[in-house]
Amino acid sequence: MKIFVCVVLFAATCCLNFASSTTYEPTWDSLDKRPIPSWYDEAKFGIFMHWGVFSVPSFENEWFWWNWKGAKIPSYIEFMKENYPPNFEYADFAPQFTAEFFDPDSWADLFKASGAKYIALTSKHHEGFTNWPSVNSWNWNSVDVGPRRDLVGDLAASIRNRTSIHFGLYHSLFEWFNPLYLKDKEGGFKTQDFVRTKTMPELYDLINNYKPELIWSDGQWEASSDYWNSTEFLAWLYNSSPVKNTIVVNDRWGKGTPCKHGGYYTCQDRYNPGTLQTHKWENAMTIDKRSWGYRRNAPLSDYLTIDELLKTFVTTISCGGNMLANIGPTKEGTIPTIFEERLRQMGKWLGINGEAVYSSVPWKHQNDTTNPDVWYTAKGGKVYAFVLEWSSSIKLGSPLATSSSSTIDLIGGARNLTWEPLKPSGVKVDIPAWSGLKWCLVLRFNGFE
Does the model's pTM come out above 0.85? Predict the structure, then answer.
């Protein structure tokens, strides 16, 4: 059981809607003082999409090229020997990344139905292939080869035309096998040819042309933020860019920056500390337990159930985080049924319990003091308890009634539930039988502290 008592959250990065008059210097000391726009903290739930050339082999995970040619993992080498000609190269997968069934309107409608408030689409992964017509990627992009269309632009348009979801992009700073990057690396990162001609032009292009409200940076771990020119880019992003007042970024901008510098913290993949944090953070996680990209060989047991997904979600938001749930589209541009089902289940649950989620804040207790299957949020003077294991009678150690008129409701169900105080503290709540969703019940406490 993990309990953390605190009533002040995110003192270092209070979340505001603002038109900033502050000028930020290209230093971490200055940039780290920039408040995170409030839309991000209020959103709570987002959808990640890992989609690229790796979606063609769709074997094991999205690091296919590196595991095959870099790490030379035997299972990948054997997979290629058994299924492809001897001289087949990774670039030969690109024409098979066809996206012929990609319907951005249907994607946007699904994301809206899921209850997600923001998304992050892969604009470029570590393979270097861009999902937009980047002039800096020569013919290694989705317009010159494969889909023959601007995937970033098409989805951005549908999201904005059909939903109020905030559009965001994932972008990898580095590329596994780019000769310019490898040359900079070989020289100890004393030159910046790759940054000057590839990484930074791409980032400026994405911001100026697609105006995302979130940049999910990655691939930072081999070189410092000085090599990447990260602080110069972020200063421009916050001061002069077309999204300067709404843009949100994460913390992956150079070796040593995660969980220390940038916007909200991701710290590591699937980060879920279980205790209240002093800085806004995000749990970027996968519905497929083993991969961010689509896997043709994934068994059903490798996917989170809706109960497991909701447990991850409520433990995340109770401690002040957002959950960014990843799905892996196919090379044809479809979202596999298992991902669609999970997203629609999330939307059904949020349609009932959203008042306990959106714009909520952590309560003074995150996890109940006596019941490890109950987590809390608060909003508007009310306390919300997320009950992971359903029971007809639940004992809670944290809520304390402030008067005899205090009440407890089951969201989406009965109001004024029968309850009684416990000694030395807490309450016992009776939950009547009901036919609604039982994945995770939510109790509303009125007049409790």
Answer: yes
